[in-house]
Model the fold of this input.
Amino acid sequence: MSKDCLFCRIVAKEIPAKIVHEDEQAIAFDDINPQAPTHILVVPRRHIPSLNELAAKDAGLIGHLHLVAAQLARQRGIAESGYRVVLNTGRGAGQSVFHLHLHLLGGRGMRWPPG
Ligand code: 5GP
Ligand code: ZN
Done:
């Protein structure tokens, strides 16, 4: 746990969030500034700053985060209509919280390419 990391503090329940999934490896909660009707962040409990710091031994973890996103998409009823899973890496790509997280976005049409 990193004391000055926002998502570590949400994982530790020091900062409140609308948690929609919890397991041994991951938690998921509603984004505070939703960009779509469904906008959930899927976060590993362990502090990993970004995809750049992920190691080969973390292959199972990054796979698990995607499986959680897919399960939440089914629960929200957007699995068939379509959803997007986004992993911003680095400031130039829009990453603002340096604790790895997947965005699960859905419930509206999505454009391509993203901005
Ligand atoms: P990034 O820009 O790093 O890919 O995504 C960070 C996300 O975290 C943003 O979508 C932002 O709205 C969300 N966020 C920032 N602060 C908080 C917070 O305190 N609580 C929650 N639930 N989401 C947050
Ligand atoms: Zn963290």
